[in-house]
Design goal:
It is a single chain. The protein is α/β, with parallel strands linked by helices. The protein has a domain at about 1-45 and about 225-255 and about 270-310 and about 330-509. It is about 50% helix and about 15% strand. It is built from 14 helices and 13 strands. It has a ten-stranded mixed beta sheet with strand order 3-4-5-2-1-6-11-8-12-7, with helices on both faces. The chain has a three-stranded antiparallel beta sheet with strand order 9-10-13. Helix 1 crosses helix 7, helix 7 packs across helix 14 and helix 13 (about 405-430) packs across helix 14 (about 450-485).
C-alpha cells in the first residue's frame, strides 16, 4: 500500500469516527430531551398559570422589540403582544433607524404620540432621536407602551436602548418579525418561580411559515409549501426540542435564541449589555476586549452571563424550557437562507474566539468541559470536516482507494444515523402525552396533530442528509471564509410577512 493510499484511508477512518461521535451525541441528547419533554407535557395536567398570573412574586416585565425595516410584519407582531396573558408588562419598541415605513406604520396603526419618557443611560448606545408613547386604549395588563426612535446601530444596540428605556426588573428580548404564543410568558415564569436562581431562560421557537396568523395570534398550525422551509422545521425541532433542552439539563447552555428569551435586567446591566462597539464597561473589556462587536448577540450575551455566574460563584443559572412557544418567519429562498447561515457561523466563531478562556477551564464546569468543546468540534471544525468527507469519500471509493464495505459504513454513519436522529427529533417534538382522562387528544409541544403533517415532517427528516445538510455545510464554510477575510455585515434577508396566510390543510391550534 502506498503512503498516499494509507494517508487517505486514515483520514477516511477519522471522518467515520467523527460522524459516529457526532450522531451518537445527538442521539444521547434525544434521550435526555425526550424525558424532559414528557415531563413538561404531563405537568400540563396541573397547569397553574392562573396562580402565576395572580402571584405577588410574579414581577412586572418589559418586552423589548428591536425593529429594522419590519414594515411587512410589525403590526401583526405588535398586535400579538397586546394579547399576551401576563399581569403587568410594558412594551418597548425600538426603531433602529429603519429606512422603510416601519416607524410611520407603528405610529399610524396604534396611535402613538411623540413625547418625553423616562430614559436612563445605563448602557452606552447610538444616539436616540425621539420617543413616542401610547396613553389611551392600552391592552389589559399593559401598563406602558412606548416607541424609541434611534440612529441605526444594529439589533444589539437597539436592545441596549430598550434596556435603558425599561422600568421593570425583567425583560423579554424578541424579534419584530415573531409572534409569541398567548401563554408563553406565564409558562416561562412558572419555571422561573419554581426553580430559584434562573437569571435567563429561553423557550421553544417554531416556523410560522404555512400557519394562519390572525390578529397577532397563530390560529391554525400548518406546514410551509416550500421544501426549503420544511427542512428548516425539522432543523428547529432538532435544535430547540432536543439540543437546547439537553444542554440545559447539563447546565451548559450557550445560546438562547434572540427570537424569545427572558432576562433579569440587573444581570445583563452588570455584564455590560449586549455586545456593540459602543460598550465601555470594565467587565466587557476584561472578557471580550475593546471595540468588539458580533452578528450573533444572542449567543455572546449568554456565554458572557455564564462566565459571570461562574467566576462570581453565584447560585444562579441559565435555563431553558421546551414549552413556551414563539413563532418566527424562516427564509424560503436559497439566497436568503444562505445569508442567515453565513451570519450564524460568523457569529459562532466570534463568540468562541472572544470567550476562548472557557475551553477546558475547570472553573466553568460543564460549560468548559463539554459545551464549549462540543461547539468547537462539531459546529466549527465539523463544517469543513463534514464537507470534505461528503466530497472526498465518494471520490476515493470511485477511484478504488476505499473498499465498498468502508463506503457503506460511511453512508450508514453519516446519512442513515443522521436520519435516525432527525426522525427522533420530529417524534419528540410531536409526541402526544395524555394530560387528563377526560381529554381525547393528548398534548404535544408543537401542535402538529394532523397525521399528514407528521408524515411529511418524517419524510423530510429522512431526506435531510441527502442534499439539504450538504447545502447548509457549504454556507457554513462560506461563513468561515468570510469571517477570516473580515466580513462583518448582518445581511438581513427579505421577508414575505405573515399577515393572514393560511394553509388549507392546517390543523386548529
Amino acid at each position: 500500500m502506498s503512503g498516499t493510499a494509507l494517508v487517505l484511508q486514515v483520514l477516511s477512518a477519522l471522518l467515520v469516527l467523527y460522524f459516529f461521535l457526532y450522531n451518537s451525541f445527538q442521539l444521547a441528547f434525544v434521550l435526555v430531551a425526550f424525558r424532559e419533554v414528557r415531563h413538561q407535557l404531563r405537568s400540563r395536567a396541573y397547569e397553574d398559570l392562573d396562580i402565576v398570573a395572580g402571584s405577588p412574586f410574579t414581577p412586572p416585565l418589559s418586552i423589548i422589540v428591536p425593529a429594522y425595516n419590519e414594515e411587512k410584519t410589525i403590526v401583526e407582531s405588535l398586535s400579538s403582544l397586546g394579547r399576551l396573558r401576563f399581569p403587568r408588562m410594558e412594551i418597548i419598541v425600538v426603531n433602529d433607524g429603519s429606512t422603510d415605513g416601519t416607524l410611520d406604520r407603528i405610529v399610524r396603526e396604534f396611535g402613538f404620540r411623540r413625547m418625553e419618557i423616562t430614559y436612563e443611560d445605563r448602557i452606552s448606545t447610538c444616539p436616540v432621536r425621539g420617543f413616542y408613547e401610547l396613553r389611551e386604549g392600552l391592552p389589559p395588563g399593559v401598563t406602558r407602551w412606548v416607541v424609541v426612535d434611534k440612529e441605526n446601530g444594529g439589533k444589539a444596540d437597539a436592545l441596549n436602548v430598550g434596556i435603558n428605556a425599561s422600568t421593570c426588573p425583567m425583560f423579554v428580548s424578541m424579534d419584530a418579525d415573531s409572534v409569541i404564543d398567548e401563554k408563553a410568558l406565564l409558562q416561562a415564569f412558572r419555571v422561573m418561580l419554581r426553580e430559584e436562581g434562573i437569571v435567563a431562560i429561553g423557550g421553544q421557537v417554531s416556523l410560522v411559515n404555512g400557519c394562519e396568523v390572525h390578529e397577532g395570534q397563530v390560529r391554525k398550525v400548518g406546514l410551509p409549501d416550500s421544501s426549503l422551509a420544511r427542512f428548516q422545521v425539522v432543523e428547529y425541532m432538532r435544535s430547540f426540542s432536543i439540543g437546547r433542552t439537553a444542554l440545559a439539563r447539563l447546565n451548559a447552555i450557550m445560546i438562547i435564541s434572540g427570537v424569545f428569551g427572558i432576562f433579569r435586567k440587573d444581570v445583563v446591566v452588570k455584564v455590560g449589555g449586549y455586545l456593540t462597539r459602543n460598550l465601555t464597561g470594565k467587565l466587557v473589556r476584561e472578557y471580550v476586549g475593546e471595540g468588539r462587536e458580533t452578528v450573533c448577540e444572542d449567543m455572546e450575551i449568554i456565554v458572557r452571563i455564564q462566565r459571570y455566574i461562574r467566576e462570581k460563584r453565584l447560585p444562579s443559572r441559565v435555563g431553558y424550557t421546551p414549552e413556551p412557544l414563539c413563532w418566527t418567519e424562516g427564509p424560503e429562498t436559497v439566497k436568503s437562507l444562505g445569508k442567515q447561515r453565513n451570519r450564524w457561523m460568523r457569529g459562532l466563531i466570534e463568540t468562541l474566539v472572544y470567550h476562548r478562556a472557557i475551553l477546558w477551564n475547570p472553573r466553568y464546569g460543564n460549560l468548559g468541559w463539554f459545551a464549549y468543546p462540543f461547539f468547537v468540534l462539531f459546529e466549527f471544525i465539523g463544517a469543513p470536516l463534514e464537507f470534505f468527507g461528503y466530497l472526498a469519500v465518494p471520490l476515493l471509493y470511485a477511484t478504488g482507494y476505499l473498499s465498498g464495505s468502508f463506503f457503506f459504513l460511511f453512508l450508514l454513519l453519516s446519512v442513515a444515523y443522521g436520519a435516525l436522529v432527525s426522525v427522533s427529533a420530529v417524534v419528540t417534538g410531536a409526541w402526544s402525552e395524555a394530560t387528563s382522562r377526560d381529554r381525547k387528544r393528548g398534548s404535544s409541544l408543537l401542535r402538529y396533530r394532523d397525521r399528514r403533517h407528521l408524515a411529511v415532517l418524517l419524510a423530510y427528516a429522512l431526506l435531510e442528509n441527502l442534499g439539504y445538510r450538504q447545502l447548509t455545510l457549504w454556507w457554513r464554510n462560506r461563513g468561515i471564509w468570510d469571517y477570516y477575510f473580515g466580513k462583518t455585515g448582518w445581511e438581513k434577508f427579505e421577508r414575505k410577512g405573515f399577515g393572514e396566510t393560511t394553509e388549507q390543510s392546517a390543523e386548529e391550534a
